[in-house]
Amino acid sequence: MATASPGPARRPTPTGTPGSNTVGYNPMRWRRFWLLIFGLLVLNIVISSIIQSASTPASVTIPYNLFLDEINAGNVINITATGDSITGTTRKAVSPGSGQPSAKNFLTQRPSFASDNLETTLIKNKVSILAENPNPPTPLWETLLLWFGPTLLIVFGFIYLMRRSAAALGGGGSGGLLGRFGQSGARLYNAERPDTTFADVAGIDEVKAELVEIVDFLKKPEKYQRLGGTIPKGVLLIGAPGTGKTLLARAVAGEAGVPFFSISASEFIEAIVGVGAARVRDLFQKARAAAPAIVFIDELDAIGRSRSTGARLGGNEEQEQTLNQILTEMDGFDTHTGVIVLAATNRADVLDAALLRPGRFDRRVTVPFPDRRGRLEILRIHTRHIPLGPDVDLDLIASLSAGMVGADLRNLANEAALAAARRDATTVSQADFSDALEKVELGSERKLSLTVLDREKIAYHESGHALLGLLQPGADPVRRVSIIPRGQSLGVTVQSPVDDRFSYGEDYLRGRITGALGGRAAEELVYGVVTTGAESDLRQVTVIARQMVVKWGMSPKVGVLSLDDEGQGQSLSLTRPYSEETAALIDEEVRRICEECLRQAVALLTSNRDKLDALVHALLEHDTLGETEILAVTGIAAPAPAPAIPQPR
């Protein structure tokens, strides 16, 4: 493999980009700010205490009997009574005792049991008498200082902080707060040491080939510009969850060796209107400063939903402003700046048409489910650092894991490694992968106390599924049968195709329905009554039969019509796109197909009752049977071996 030439030298990370300190943030400045606030609060308390003490003249507290003596001696000039508390002034300084300070202002307390005629004594000695309210109102200045002083200090402190932030952001005045919220939270991955390349992506070679051109442009833009070509401004990755859209985007950045800004679309939306648009502007400004660069927006449908639909409720203004800003930024791109937008979604059908027009997301790349070969390559990547036993067949595991995506296969490999670790093994065996596959698909094993009759009914139910899977031509091979409860199931029959199927014939679909009804048919044949164990089977049967009628035109009475309203804008409509008579005909045809398959299932099991009983007895004895054991018990010939996956050249 040829070694890729090094990418363009990475420019210094612009101030404020993710991965560096946030613009305007200084820990020492924050510490000084809060110390200042604390000091001002302490100063406020000290000043209040000084003012209160300054307004009160120096005085001494004297005993009440000394107070009476001073009145009789004519030394008291005036008094002020506040309840039982008495203050006043004297002509000569008085002292409560020898060696204690003296003053002309005194304070004393009249005892509640005093019986002297104090008023007569005061009038007789010509003492001025003044009475005050014992609970006077607090002065206005004191109320303002004590109650509003700390609040005003905090408010002015935050205003000071916002002004400093605005200055650091290059904005002014009131724009500081919005500027603070308007910074995007995009994460910047180190382009000099990429942790993901195309070597970490497998199973989607066609998609990688689509993105090689993007990488080549970022590494050698002059190759395309000299011929007048321009790179797509945006690439939209469309695929189901777990198919590797984010992994592909990071691999593109890793291969190109350029800064990679990653953000989820939901992070743009904020409660404050206008913040989302500000974050979009900030993100694209950072990307231009670091160009050539890649901007990756995950879950684009969170903000890119069509503005014409009536299904959007609440938050429309903020969401539309954010979407409009993205459209404006992408439309204003200079194709020579070297900034490319990658986005990922699993709901491309709900995106706004303005996003998908040429000049914005020029290229749409579908990331499909991996086929059998793709799953094998993905398993090889995820088991690179796992010690595998000699019996591990990744080809077989890839065949058994039909429908799984990259995230599922990674989880499968991890669960197998955990299972091997639990039993203190040094390597991971094929049995560990089988147990992990059952755990991933069906859930953990449950310890239930089942009666003998219940176990027998479950065994007949699962044997009915398995036997019909063996008897019907073209059916998927039966890999495993178990009557061990897992998750919500009391038993399980595992069937998987020899290879992936991309087109289904009517005979195969009818065989699927017949096999799914095998459990119910076995219960009806053996016990004459049915149980609730066929709940999920009936749900699956109904879905397949209805799709045969309304989607695939496999009903002679309904005809070659597509009456499926999925994806045709009818999901929120109260009316169906067909008449009541057609609806009744659809229900009749679905019922007919299911009943015909049930009769076929009962007939097959009746004619092979000996094989059914033998399989049940083996299940009751061993709980779980593998494919080889099932074939040996029933005496049915093994199907042709699966063709090996051809190795890529």
Task: Give your account of this protein's structure.
By secondary structure, this protein is α/β, with parallel strands linked by helices. The chain has 5 domains: 69 residues, no CATH class; 75 residues, Signal recognition particle alu RNA binding heterodimer, srp9/1 (2-Layer Sandwich); 181 residues, P-loop containing nucleotide triphosphate hydrolases (Rossmann fold, 3-Layer(aba) Sandwich), CATH 3.40.50; 71 residues, Helicase, Ruva Protein, domain 3, CATH 1.10.8; 176 residues, Peptidase M41 (Methane Monooxygenase Hydroxylase, Chain G, domain 1, Up-down Bundle). Helix content is 47%, strand content 11%. The chain contains 22 helices and 14 strands. The strands form 3 sheets. A 6-stranded mixed sheet has the order 6-8-9-10-7-11, sandwiched between helices. Strands 1-4-3-2-5 form a 5-stranded mixed sheet, covered by helices on one side. Strands 13-12-14 form a 3-stranded antiparallel sheet. Helix 4 crosses helix 5 and helix 16 crosses helix 21. It is elongated, with a radius of gyration of 42 Å. The chain starts with 26 loop residues before the first helix and ends in a 15-residue tail after the last helix.
